[in-house]
Amino acid sequence: MDNTISQIVMSKRQEHSKKPHQIYSKIESLYGEIERIELFARHKRQGWDVWGNQVPKETQNLLEVQ
Which residues contact 29 (CB under 8 A, 6 or more apart)? Predict the structure, then answer.
């Protein structure tokens, strides 16, 4: 885990509820190569499973419970 990642994000305001792009890289740096899912996603992102009504159904992959 990387303790140098700031919890504060400064970014221009975007569309309603859209996350700034740097959030994804911060999460990836903090947690490394683990399975990730974004709920209420707008787009598919490599290395992430996504779920949301703005993502085409064929790209929605939920993590399998083991």
Answer: 2, 5
Distances (CA, A) of 25 to 56, 57, 65: 23, 25, 25
Distances (CA, A) of 23 to 2, 58, 64, 66: 14, 25, 24, 27
What global pTM score does this model have? 0.67
Rounded CA separation 49/44 (Å) = 7
User: What residues pair up with 51 in beta bridges, in sequence order?
Assistant: 39
pLDDT tens column, 37-59: 888 888 888 889 888 888 877 77
Q: Within 13 Å of residue 27, how many CA atoms lie on the same side as its CB?
A: 14
Q: Which two tokens stand for residue 18?
A: 């859209």
